[in-house]
Amino acid sequence: MASPPDHQASKTTVCVMDASGHLGSTLVHRLLLRGYTVHAALHNPPPGRMEYLEGQYRNKKVKVFQADPFDYHSIIQAMKGCSGLFYSFEPPTDDSSYDQEVMTEVEARAAHNVLEACAHTDSIHKVVFTSSVTAVIWSHHFNTTSLDVDERNWSDINFCKRFKLWHGLSKTVAEKTAWALAMDRSINMVSINGGLMMGPDLNITNPYLKGAAEMYDDGLFVTVDLNYLVDSHICVFEDVSSYGRYLCFNQIINCNHNAVKLAHSLLPPSDTAISMEDTKVKQQRISNKKLNKLMVNFDVDFHQLDCSED
Hints:
Blueprint: H1 6-10, E1 13-17, H2 22-33, E2 37-42, H3 49-56, E3 62-66, H4 72-79, E4 84-87, H5 102-119, E5 126-132, H6 157-162, H7 166-184, E6 189-194, E7 196-198, H8 212-217, E8 222-225, H9 226-238, E9 244-248, E10 251-252, H10 256-266, H11 289-295
Helix pairs in contact: 2-9, 4-5, 5-7
Protein name: NAD-dependent epimerase/dehydratase domain-containing protein
Pfam families: Epimerase
Keywords: NADP, Oxidoreductase
């Protein structure tokens, strides 16, 4: 679906939550370029962050909110008057607590609170929920090469617990919580299940990477660049035919060349002991055809424009 007419976007107000991460902040900029008015909701901004963003967005169609996902009133305030919500939960990648089961409860509670707030916000017509490929791939069918994986699959909660795959566990439970609320409250929701998001801050401590070797061997290790991830979120929001879940990635790490390239971006050269003699290509077992069909006619020229006008 092509981008909406300027007059339509200019009358549309949407909320981005959490707007402080790489995904959220880029979504804010891109939505502004498309003519939207944006409520930028920050989960737990450090001291001075809100004031800084308010200065950055001065004279633009942005209003900055502090919206604690565990403070129902603050969520309602941030979404007031918005027709859509882009929701993501991005805990610090270097937070050691992410390796504990407690983070699963934190993400699930946050998802529950936000979807419940959406149900009581009459103006919200659509929710785009950011999830992860790790909520799709982990199950007892892992290493069963005859079975392909797409958006219809769900990670097995007990499997994730058994092998301490905390990222997959958290994303699976949070997304299932969101879907349960959406169906119960008749909320129009779609989810984007993204691969490993590439960026300058990516490092080996990223919780997505737990089980990376197994993902690679099984043809399920996928990555996505920030621009494509953002475009995908806006596409599923604007396209009235979008529904359900969408696997989002634009590269699969299934050969030695790509694996070495990724390893070099994550580790010092001395630590990347990967054999250059391995020329095997792993069979791709994961499909993003559903999203690709939707993205065919999507206008992606906006991200080439400058977002930093005065």
